[in-house]
């Protein structure tokens, strides 16, 4: 009897197991939901970030360009001044007189410490203590001459009868000089003979279209010849600068720059000038040159 009972229980256990397996097989399997990643939104975020980066870079580039453009002209002016100083410090092969050397050094010291300058016809404001110069060409040369060679300046004033010699006074005084040194001055006829510290003046004749009557300046370096012309580095007070100038573009006043003087191929005397290298020559002009010397 007990054996029958055990067999019956085993039969029901096997039947229950088989029934549970069959039920499991018939139950539908539901797919597991997985999180969906919003790729589009992420991509838009990347694009927005990239756009902001590009915009920031473009803004920085424009700002940097503006700052670079602003600094560009001042850098050129400083470079021109530095070149002039370095040229002045080099020996001039024994050609520069002590007076010329004194004048050139005074000019460099004046230019390097200036704070404000402007060209003004008839202006006489020359203040080295404050670095302010509002002056015309002749008064600028007057000051340079008074400092470097007071005796030569006194000779000029006495001969012209003017306490403040103008370009016209310089021109007539120079053309009246003889070849024999006198009154602290030497006459110069040829551009190739110019030395640092010499004074160059020109007067435009009635056919000139420049609008100015004349100009006077001081030579800063030995002229360099290029075919039938010379590049001459000068210091002056003018309404605009020359080439390789210490003055900023579109500014006036005192400064150092390079101009071009054409010479007559037969006589070697100056016949025309170009205010800047590469500009048109002005031919309707008369020149006079002289060198202040020790008495």
Helices and strands, with pairings:
Blueprint: H1 2-26, H2 39-89, H3 98-112, E1 116-119, E2 124-127, E3 132-135, H4 137-148, H5 150-160, H6 167-175, E4 185-188, E5 199-204, E6 214-219, E7 224-226, E8 229-238, E9 253-263, E10 270-274, E11 285-292
Parallel strand pairs: 1-3
Antiparallel strand pairs: 2-3, 4-11, 5-6, 5-11, 6-8, 7-8, 8-9, 9-10
Helix pairs in contact: 2-3, 3-4, 4-5
- Could you say how many structural domains there are in total? 1
Biggest sheet record: 8 strands, antiparallel
Number of strands: 11
| Rg, nearest Å | 43 Å
Helix content: 40-55%
Average pLDDT reading: 79
Contiguous low-pLDDT stretches (5 residues minimum) are 23-57, 88-95
Number of helices: 6
Beta-strand portion reads 15-25%
Helix/sheet category: alpha+beta
Instruction: Give the N-to-C terminal Cα separation.
Output: 160 Å
Order of helices and strands, N to C?
Answer: HHHEEEHHHEEEEEEEE
Q: Note the overall shape.
A: elongated
